[in-house]
Amino acid sequence: MTTPLDAASPLAALSERTLPSAAAAETAARPAGAPGTAARRPSRHLGLSGKLLAFTVAFVVLAELLIIVPSIAAYRVNWLSDRLAAARTAALVLDVAPQEMVPPDLTRELLGSVGAITVALKRNDTRRLLASTDMPPEVDLHVDLRDVGPWQAVSEAVDTLFAPDGRIIRVVGTPPRLGGFVEIVIDETPLRKAMLRFTRNLVLVSLIIAALTGGLIYLGLAWMFVRPMRRLTQRMVAFREAPGALPAALDPTARMDEIGQAEREFTEMQRQIRETLQQKSRLAALGLAVSKINHDLRNLLASVQLLSDRLAMIRDPAVQRFAPKLEAALDRAIAYCEHTLAYGKAQEPPPERRMVALAPLIADVQATLGLSAEDGAAIGWVDSVERGLKVDADPDQLFRVLLNLCRNAVEALAARAPNDPLRDQIRVTGRREGSTVVVEVADTGPGVPEAARVHLFEAFQGSARRGGTGLGLAIAAELMQAHGGEIRLVPGTIGATFQLRIPDRPVDLEAHRALRSHG
């Protein structure tokens, strides 16, 4: 017989875990300079709205520059082209008039209408000065409008805007008829003043249009992006400060873009984290309760051990048949209490694996549940394990897995009492598939509801029975994972069928050779 278990409960430490509400209270009680409050300080950096406004202004100004500069260059070219057009008209008049027959007053009037100092016409190989003032000034700059590219027009326009007053330029353009060219010499000051007036008016109109356009763009982007992002940020801050509190009612978003997806994903994340915190709180409360129960259960088990020792001395055949089973059950109960609800710990102890015969282990499960024919069980039991099948596993942990699965099957079948062994049955099968042992526990009960299959192997989530905790399947899944195997619900079967796959451990060839050499 096993000695009574120690008084200390392994889950005593679990009851000392800090609950989320306590963590939130601790966070709220931090001093202002604590690291946890850094995110609450008002940010001195430019916010999203300010950045959006700055980018809007920058891009609108850039667009206006790309419009204004070519417009000024085009205005200068058009202004000079108008002067050349007027010069061509004057050239037609002066060209048909006999020489020395044009009165000086008419010449000055024609030059005044053109705004030029001199007008000259080149045709074929001759260049004729058609009109001129008494003393033509010296030319400072030559401008040829017959072939002006865009970059040249822009650079010359900028040069004109910053030119000094009184600069004289010579402008060459197309002739009134084919061949040659027309040239005029003018003072550039009227052109520069006209360009400055045009630039001022254009900038004023552009600023008005840019302000309206930028304002509309900013308001549109702020409504579509900044406002929902600010709302999402406020929800994040509120959730960080009180993750366990219920969120305020939110209108479901119908947006199908990235922001709508972010809102929906954040809402789902809140729900999952809140459920996780609730599970942690329940586990902490469970650990506190179990530590109290463990203290009293220790004394009860000690009394039961004394009674079992006395029963073992009775020579009655029935007592002698049941006494070893009682002793084995007590041994397991004591071992479980020593590791009281080990699921509440960080993890289960690593399995102590060895090759174990599967059939005797399943027989122990049947005896523990009282499903043998000698016990008059109302639920049938079918054992279909291959003869001599061995599994590489920890026998105690595998027993716990099988016991949890079979107990769930018994509870599912007992729900439709009175039971009939021919109708209500539990079938356990075992076979080897290469280096993997496959064990299936099936029942003819109502099966697992669809709603319970989503979180079937999660604690407090996967129970299909009213009042159940779902810890049995969660513990089974953890133990199977420790063995490198898996547990799953087989779909499309009558009732519920759970399949265990337990792979053999890889063979260490070096250790095997060393063992053979020493042997």
Q: In words, what does this structure look like?
A:
The structure is a single chain. With 519 residues, the protein is of the alpha+beta class. Among the domains are: 49-204, no CATH class; 348-518, Heat Shock Protein 90 (2-Layer Sandwich). It is 53% helix and 14% strand. The chain contains 13 helices and twelve strands. A five-stranded mixed β-sheet has the order 2-1-5-4-3. A five-stranded mixed β-sheet has the order 7-9-10-12-11. Helix 3 runs antiparallel to helix 6 (189-241), helix 6 (189-241) runs parallel beside helix 7 and helix 7 crosses helix 8 (317-338). The two termini are 37 Å apart. The model is unreliable at 1-40 and 341-346 (pLDDT under 50).
Helix and strand layout, with pairings?
Layout: H1 12-15, H2 20-28, H3 48-96, H4 104-114, E1 118-123, E2 126-132, E3 141-144, H5 150-161, E4 168-173, E5 181-187, H6 189-241, H7 258-312, H8 317-338, E6 354-357, H9 358-369, E7 380-385, E8 390-393, H10 395-414, E9 425-433, E10 436-443, H11 450-453, H12 471-482, E11 486-489, E12 497-503, H13 509-518
Parallel strand pairs: 3-4, 7-9
Antiparallel strand pairs: 1-2, 1-5, 4-5, 6-8, 9-10, 10-12, 11-12
Helix pairs in contact: 3-4, 3-5, 3-6, 6-7, 7-8, 9-10, 10-12
